[in-house]
Amino acid sequence: MSDTAAYSHNTTLIPETLDISVKSAVFLKGLMFTRVMPSFYIFIILISLPLNALALVTFTCRIREKKPAVIYMSHLACVDLLFTLLLPLKIHYQLNASDWVFGEVACRVLSAAYYCYMYCSILLMMCMSVDRLLAVAFPITSLTWRSARKATCVCVLVWLLALAGTVPLLSMRQTLKVNDVGVTCHDALLRNDPSVLYYVYLFSILSCLYFFLPMLVTLLSYFTIIYVLSVKSDRLATSSSSGNRRRAVIMAIAVLIEFVMCFAPTNGILFYHCVRLATEGDSSYAAYLLAVCLGSASVFLDPLLYYYGSSQCRKQIRSVFLVQKDKRVKTSSNT
After folding, report:
1. What 3-state class would DSSP assign to 16?
2. What is the distance between the alpha carbons of residues 159 and 147, in angstroms, rounded to a whole number?
3. 3-state class of 8 per DSSP?
4. Nearest CA to 128 among 188, 203, 67, 48?
5. Were 151 and a residue from 15, 18, 71, 107 both cysteine, which residue would form a disulfide, CB within 3.0 to 4.6 Å?
6. Nearest 5°: phi and psi at 269?
7. Predicted local distance difference test score (pLDDT) of residue 45
8. What are 190's strand-pairing partners?
9. How far is CA 212 from the centre of its chain?
10. Which ranges in the chain belong to alpha helices (H)?
11. What is the spatial distance between Cα 241 and Cα 247, in angstroms, rounded to a whole number?
12. Residue 7 — φ and ψ, nearest 5°?
């Protein structure tokens, strides 16, 4: 979505070629959009692809006991991988100076995939936090609720909710031909077009249901977890309880960083962007696109959640390092 695109004549029909402000055109052709942001996406691919692929293999093949946390994390790794595999289209588009060459259908899929990835990640992180809270606060009574089958059903529901929230984007036109730029993908809207007001309603609902509410539940869950573990640590005064509290604090900080740095700017600026575009004809265009780029960083922050959120994952990683250490010791002793 974008800055103001003005009509070349008074009509309700979408013109074949649109005019946008000089400032917006310069940004779409500038160094930040065509070089810096694609480089950041390439960096995301190089970090995210091996880490999330390794995590997915670990959760699905190496860990036999499928606890709810493992199931949630395996789905989160799958979401991150699918999104990462679509990033080359975004990179090509920006390196090509904002000229989309893959057609309308591919643009709709890419646009919907970004929001589906974001909302699916947020909902899965909320599920992980609630599951962790139940395990810490109600370790015995929650055993009947925290089954692998129920966790799988919850993950299926999360996928369905995320897909349902992004279906409208698949039904709306996303490519527009812009003068002095080319064919834009999800980067141009007409100020007088009814779809602008539709975007305002759509993303205000999505932000409330898929971002603000899950964020509130997630943060409250982790703060409660830290409080419960602090009470247990003070009462038991053992190294294991203090270690659990330390990991919970790290998890809470990591989740807070993801929400504040990755998801909050995208949702907040997106809603503000649509409102400004619908009412005043001006928008925070560059800030929104930068927020979208920054929001993609969560795909390589999630492995931190895998490590500190699953004891089974930590055991697998430690076993790999122990095997490598034993091999080096045997090699050095043989020589």
Report:
1. coil
2. 19
3. coil
4. 67
5. 71
6. -70, -35
7. 93
8. 5
9. 14
10. 22-29, 31, 37-57, 68-95, 104-137, 148-170, 194-207, 213-236, 239-257, 264-279, 285-295, 298-309, 311-334
11. 10
12. -70, 145
Q: Is 186 helix (H, G, I), strand (E, B) or coil?
A: coil
Structure tokens at 140: 């015995």
Based on C-alpha coordinates, what's the Rg of the chain? 23
- The more confident residue out of 321 and 174 is 174
User: End-to-end distance of the chain based on CA atoms, in angstroms?
Assistant: 63
Note the pLDDT tens digit of each residue in 78-111.
999 999 999 999 999 999 988 899 999 999 999 9
Cβ(72)–Cβ(151) under 8 Å? yes
Amino acid 116 reads C
Structure token pair of residue 213 = 């509410």
> CA dist 189 to 8, 87, 204, Å?
14, 23, 17
Q: Is the dihedral of CA 302, 308, 312, 316 positive or negative?
A: positive
Classify 175 as helix, strand or coil. Answer: strand
Q: Model pTM?
A: 0.83
Q: Is 92 exposed, middle or buried (0-12, 13-18, 19+ CB in 10 A)?
A: middle
**Phi, psi (deg, nearest 5) at residue 140:** -95, -55
